Automatic annotation (TrEMBL):
InterPro entries: tRNA_Anticodon_Mtase-Reg, WD40/YVTN_repeat-like_dom_sf, WD40_repeat_CS, WD40_repeat_dom_sf, WD40_rpt. This is WD40 repeat. It comes from Arabidopsis thaliana x Arabidopsis arenosa. It is found in: Cytoplasm. SMART domains: WD40. PANTHER family: WD REPEAT PROTEIN, WD REPEAT-CONTAINING PROTEIN 6. SUPFAM superfamilies: WD40 repeat-like (SSF50978). One of its GO terms (biological process) is tRNA methylation. Its main location: cytoplasm.
């Protein structure tokens, strides 16, 4: 009884919803309170109130239960009492209407505003959906009677009048044109002036009004509908109608991709039809000078009243922009859509046009400064060039007002941007023989002397092969303090000059077209008055690829030099401290490469490189390239290994030139990452954290001379310069230290733009208790991975301490944009005893096995049979002590430890010639009592031949994964079970760190496709004192569309594969130094490969062909034989055909559900069996038949088993363990519709279904389910559920569908 009373205290509480935004409305406060309106946004069942002047969320209110907010209308008038303002607020959704009192209080001392919402009245449920509401005055027009009547427009083209004062429905008016509507809008301030515009499914707009015999007196119900006019012209259904302020015009948008402006008096279209959207148009708004439309193509278009398209904004993703709103007083434009984001832009009037600034600051008269200038000696140039004309070869920003310019005549100029809009030029130096300057790099220095405000070092390389170093010092009028030149290369052989900030001004690099890098040292005292320095060649570094080096970085601590070349290759060279302090060496001495990574960016140019310290012996390398990707590598100095650790692909950029990080100057402004690059002919600065475009400048492409400079807050401080027709064009946006709000704003966290199919919590260390430090961090934040229909995978943070969704990061997309059907997190490592001597890949013998680094992976599967793995990169350190100034990728930003994030590790998918390997059906399995032993057979060679001639479009429906490592081995193997829509199950393996894919086993298919998968790893004999062996049983559990649940024992295959792979040197046979394919054309195709048992002989005989084949397929899919490869080729079966295991189900529970098993979950039970010491596991399942079903099983070691044979089924040919299965029954009608997600632990079961309920069930000691509570959620069409225990008294339940919502369950 005490336990039952304690359980009664447990209750669920609905948390915030992150999904589609369905309504927008302004709240206009008195001018002395706020000149900028507040914004109401309806999302799910919540109303969010934002302060647009600060961009902060003021309050959120839960207004409905399970009903989405479709519209919000605020009264124009208010009741004023002291510093308190009371408005009437009407919120409607579906068939519900509620009236609230909105109370705004102004604190006289601090000036802060507090807002509260009180429920004034809830109207009875209407018979039709509500499309619009409008406050009306009574016929008396007195202020006391104002807003006492509410007009409600419904989807059947009817009008209802609600008397607010009397709390009753006064009367209803039915239009004579009774038909189904998609939209209705009301205009007017009284019943007599009320106009109703209805958009029908017949592509027409019907305008009608209410006519009464007694004026506006609602006490008399003598009202009827009077038809005014019918507007025709659209060729599709009408989705949205808006009235102009004076009621003389309406704007309509339709399924025909157009917007039309109608004149009410003339009943005709005014002006041209607005065509521009490529798909359906969802919403529109109108003001005196412009029209705004928003559509399914995720664009918001601004039009002039004459039909001219003024601006196109595209910052949303997914199914489109559903709502747009424009305030003419503040020129603020708000857009919101399916992706949960709310974007705020500011339009500005320039002449006769309304334009949108790429970046704007509220109340700032000048948003962007534009400079246009020419070289000092070409002011009268007409734009026609000849061989003797001087033109710009290189330019580079060093400060927001300083640019260095180098020309083909060998001149170096200093250009200062003045506040007056002019440019002051200073000629610094003219190199000898006036050779054309080919390359330039600038290292900006700090103040050396109090009188010296400028101290920059410029490295120049000319066409004659000379290297020139210029030190620029000075204050207002800079001059060259040092001018040192020497012969660095033969003529026309000097193509690159590079500084490295970590090495300082005394060391400079030069390179030639064939990848030869030279390191030069400047000797001499910085403070001396000497005009020259001694220059010595320290070393030459020869790249094995022979391609031009495009970027260089170095780290003294990690003793490494990084080079990226023209063809996407990255090469590492040793950099010792003795080398830096040594004397000049002979030019014949060339230092070979230390490590390399071929095709890091495909065949595209590596545009920037940076290295950051991870640990005392490990460093992270970040590279960007012309393939639009950011790649991450890990370099181990002691092991001298370079491993690919992940990548991020940016669809918005074709070329990523550099990445940097802003400075967190306040708690409200996060530490954002930025990428600068090009998309076609435009320069784009992209916020990687907020996924928003900071600026976009049309410049003609990256091949023109250009440069950019970013300040601490790139939204406020960014400069870009480029050359076109011998004119230097400069765009500068530089706001000082004032903390002004910058537009565009992203008010709400951006999320997926389409439906979600799967989600999972990123698990913490399960070995840690609730009092551990990691558990305390998890208590403050929860990280959830989600997979979407559009192929995207995101990582979203839920801040438990604040109860809101704080950030959402796009990890990447599946190759080809294939829909993600299932995601799972893999973190627990399962160790396996090794009986293989002399393992090739071993951990440090001085460290314990547990000390070997265990990766944490995220696995996602989906359409086109794509499997993608993501690697957790938690606590990544970056460079410290550097400013956030980035120019052409040479500097990295300062930061603390980065938050939890995943990086793309490897992707596997079949080529068009590779099928899913469907095999013949197994014999029919009858009854629950049926026992079948695990069967391992060999497939003939015809399997591979059939693959070559077979094409399909199957998709993976479910996946589950677990990590296994052999004791003493360095390799980690992630086993991934995937269920395909062709009714097959496959066990695959990803071998780390080599990122190689293998087929391990084909699980004999049932007659129906599998919809859900789970695994259980049961420790039979855990290691203890005196026994260090590991003995685990690996089980897979599947639920199919025919309602059956199958159990599969894959222990033998897992053990054999782990031991076989751990005993060979994989990297000797396959080139592992390749990145995964991204879907970009530079990565090429793949081929399905087989790895036979005679691999060592083939590798020796055809080493070149193996290397070339592996180069095509960076993460090759392979089949491994069950025979161990012999180094000397002594295996008798060396010529046998490759084999793969075929496993039949150990047991099938038929008719567990009457239809498809949509979800499964496995959890260890607290109950102990009465026999032996086996562990008990519970399996919960949910299906389309609306039922929950519970099974229990426990595996017993044969030595401890006392049960009879009739009670037990044998899962393995070796009788080392046995299983007992118990059917616990279930709940026949657990939900009122199909169940889509379940989760359980030892005490509780949580489930969700299409009825938009989360139900909490208590699991008693007999395995029976007892419903404890339920809650209505805001997520439409739920598809998945996951949960985790925060502590002993609190759970978090996440539900995903059309959005995501968190539910707290605590007691």
């Amino acid at each position: 009884m005490a336990e039952e009373n304690s359980r009664r205290k447990w209750n669920p509480h609905a948390g915030p919803y992150l999904g589609e935004v369905s309504s927008l409305a302004f709240l206009n406060l008195p001018q002395h309170v706020s000149s900028i309106p507040y914004l109401f946004a309806g999302s799910g069942s919540e109303i969010l109130l934002y302060d647009l002047s600060s961009g902060e969320l003021v309050r959120s209110f839960q207004v409905f239960e399970g009903v989405r907010v479709h519209g919000t209308v605020c009264s124009k008038s208010f009741v004023h009492s002291a510093e308190r303002y009371t408005y009437k607020l009407v919120i409607f959704g579906e068939k519900k209407v509620k009236i609230f009192s909105l109370i705004v209080e102004l604190a006289s001392s601090s000036g802060e505003i507090s807002v509260n919402l009180e429920n004034f009245e809830s109207l009875p449920r209407l018979s039709n959906w509500v499309f619009d509401v409008c406050f009306l005055q009574d016929s008396t027009g007195s202020l006391e009677e104002e807003d006492k009547v509410l007009a409600i427009g419904c989807s059947d083209n009817s009008l209802s009048i609600w008397d607010i004062k009397e709390s009753r429905m006064a009367f209803e008016i039915q239009s004579p044109e009774r038909c189904l509507l998609y939209t209705m809008r009301l205009w007017g301030d009284s019943i007599s002036t009320l106009r109703i515009a209805s958009g029908t499914i017949f592509n027409e707009i019907i305008v009608w009004r209410a006519v009464g015999l007694d004026g506006d007196n609602v006490d008399h119900r003598h009202y009827s509908a009077s038809h005014m006019l019918r507007l025709t012209g659209h060729e599709g259904s009408i989705f949205r109608i808006v009235w102009s302020l004076d009621g003389s015009k309406i704007v309509s948008v339709s399924d025909d991709r157009s917007a039309r402006i109608w004149e009410i008096d003339s009943q005709e279209v005014v002006g041209p039809v607005l065509f521009g959207h490529s798909v359906r148009v969802w919403d529109c708004c109108i003001s005196d000078s412009l029209i705004v439309t928003a559509g399914e193509d995720c664009t918001c278009r601004v039009w002039g009243v004459d039909g001219t398209q003024l601006e196109v904004i595209k910052e949303h993703i997914g199914r489109g922009i559903w709502r747009c709103l424009y305030d003419p007083n503040s020129s603020l434009l708000v857009t919101a859509g399916f992706d949960s984001a709310i974007k705020v832009h500011q339009l500005h009037n320039r002449g006769s046009k309304m334009l949108l600034d790429a970046v704007g600051v509220l109340n700032s008269p000048d948003k962007v400064e534009y400079f246009s200038t020419c070289l000092p000696n070409s002011t009268e140039h007409t734009g026609l060039t000849d061989s003797k004309s001087e033109y710009v070869r290189c330019l580079q920003f060093t400060q927001e007002d300083t640019i260095y310019v180098a020309t083909n005549h060998g001149c170096l100029y200093h250009a200062r941007l003045l506040s007056s809009g002019n440019v002051r030029w200073t000629e610094l130096v003219r190199i000898p023989e006036e050779g054309p300057i080919i390359t330039m790099d600038v290292m900006s220095g700090g103040k050396v002397r109090e009188s010296c405000a400028l101290d920059d070092w410029v490295a120049l390389g000319d066409g004659k092969g000379n290297m020139t170093i210029v030190r620029v010092i000075g204050d207002m009028y800079p001059h060259a303090g040092l001018n040192q030149s020497w012969k660095a290369s033969p003529e026309r052989q000097l193509l690159g000059a590079f500084w490295c900030k970590s090495l300082g001004y005394r060391f400079v690099f030069s390179c030639n077209p064939r990848g030869l890098l030279k390191l030069w040292k400047l000797s001499g005292s910085l403070e001396s008055a000497a005009e020259t320095y001694d220059v010595s060649l320290l070393a030459e570094f020869s790249s094995g690829f022979g391609k031009r080096i495009m970027c260089v970085d170095a780290s003294v601590e990690d003793e490494v030099i990084l080079c990226g070349d023209l063809r996407g290759n990255i090469t590492l060279f040793p950099l010792t401290k003795d080398m830096l302090h040594g004397v000049s060496v002979s030019s014949e001495l060339k230092i070979p490469s230390l490590k390399y990574f071929k095709g890091a960016h495909g065949i595209s140019t590596v545009s920037s490189l940076s290295v950051a310290r991870l640990t005392s012996n490990k460093a992270e390398i970040c590279s960007t390239g012309a393939d639009g990707c950011i790649c991450y590598f890990e370099y181990d100095r002691e092991m001298q290994t370079l491993e690919f650790m992940g990548l991020k692909q940016l669809k918005e950029l074709n070329l990523v030139q550099s990445v940097c990080q802003g400075v967190q100057f306040s708690k409200d402004h996060p530490n954002n990452d930025y990428a600068a690059g090009f998309a076609s002919t435009d320069f784009i600065l992209w916020n990687l954290t907020a996924e928003t475009k900071v600026t976009q400048i049309s410049c003609g492409g990256w091949r023109r001379p250009h440069s950019f400079y970013l300040g601490e807050i790139p939204e406020w401080q960014n400069c870009f310069a480029y050359v076109k027709d011998d004119v230097i064009h400069i765009h500068r946006h530089w706001v000082g230290g004032q903390k002004t709000k910058v537009f565009p704003l992203n008010l709400h966290t951006q999320f997926h733009g389409r439906e979600l199919h799967s989600l999972c919590f990123i698990s913490t260390d399960t070995k840690a208790g609730f009092d551990s430090e990691e558990s305390k961090i998890s208590d403050r934040s929860s990280w959830i991975a989600t997979g979407c229909e559009d192929g995207s995978v995101r990582l979203t943070r839920y801040a438990s301490e604040f109860g809101n969704w704080s950030t959402s990061e796009l990890l990447g997309e599946h190759v080809g944009g294939s829909a993600v059907r299932s995601v799972c997190c893999v973190s627990n490592m399962h160790m396996m005893s090794s009986d293989v001597p002399n393992l090739p890949d071993v951990c440090d013998q001085d460290s314990a096995v547990d000390d070997c680094e265990s990766p944490r992976l995220l696995i996602s599967v989906g359409a086109k049979r794509v499997v993608t793995s993501w690697l957790l990169r938690n606590g990544r350190h970056k460079k410290k002590g550097e400013s956030c100034i980035s120019d052409n990728g040479h500097d990295r930003a300062s930061s603390e430890v980065s938050p939890v994030t995943f990086q793309w590790l490897a992707t596997d998918m079949p080529t068009k010639s590779r099928p899913c390997g469907k095999i013949e059906k197994s014999p029919k399995l009858e009854g629950v009592e049926e026992d079948t032993s695990a069967n391992v057979t060999k497939l003939g060679s015809n399997t591979y031949n059939e693959r070559e001639n077979y094409e399909d479009d199957w998709r993976y429906m479910a996946a589950t994964a677990f990590l296994v490592k052999c004791v003493g081995s360095r390799l980690t193997i992630c086993f991934i079970a995937v269920a395909c829509s062709d009714a097959t199950l496959t066990l695959r393996a990803l071998v780390l760190p080599h990122r190689l894919w293998f087929d391990v086993a084909s699980l004999v298919p049932l007659k129906s496709p599998v919809l859900s998968l789970q695994h259980a790893v049961v420790p039979l004999d855990p290691p203890h004192e005196g026994n260090t062996s590991y003995s685990d049983v690996y089980l897979l559990i599947s639920g199919a569309t025919d309602g059956s649940i199958a159990f599969w024992d894959v222990t033998k295959c897992v053990e054999a594969f782990v031991k076989q792979v751990s005993s060979i040197h994989i990297e000797k046979y396959i080139d592992c130094q390749l990145r995964p394919r991204t879907g970009r054309g530079s990565q090429g195709g793949r081929k399905w490969k087989l790895l036979g048992s005679k691999i060592s002989k083939r590798a020796q005989e055809n080493s070149n062909s193996v290397g070339e084949a592996a180069e095509e397929d960076p993460a090759s899919s392979l089949e491994l034989t069950n025979d161990h490869p012999q180094e000397n080729g002594e295996n008798e079966d060396a010529d046998s055909l490759p084999v793969t295991s075929e496993i039949k189900p150990s047991h099938v529970v038929k008719n567990a559900h009457q239809s498809g098993v949509n979800c499964l979950h496995v959890s260890r039970s607290n109950s102990s069996p009465s026999y032996g010491n086996g562990l008990m596991f519970n399996v919960i399942s949910g299906g389309d038949d609306q039922s929950l079903h519970c099974l229990s099983f426990n595996i017993l070691s044969s030595s401890n088993n006392r049960a009879t044979i009739s009670e037990i089924m044998d899962l393995n040919q070796t009788p080392s363990y046995r299983i007992m299965l118990t059917d616990r029954g279930g709940i026949a009608s657990a939900h009122s519709s199909a169940i889509k997600g379940v989760w359980m632990d030892a005490n509780w079961v949580f489930s969700t279904g299409l009825d938009q309920r989360v139900r909490c069930w208590f699991l008693d000691k007999d395995g029976k389910l007892i419903e404890h509570a339920h809650i209505v959620i805001s997520v439409p069409e739920p598809e998945a559920l996951d949960a985790k225990a925060i502590d002993e008294n609190r759970y978090q339940i996440a539900v995903a569908g059309r959005g995501i919502q968190m539910v707290e369950f605590s007691g």
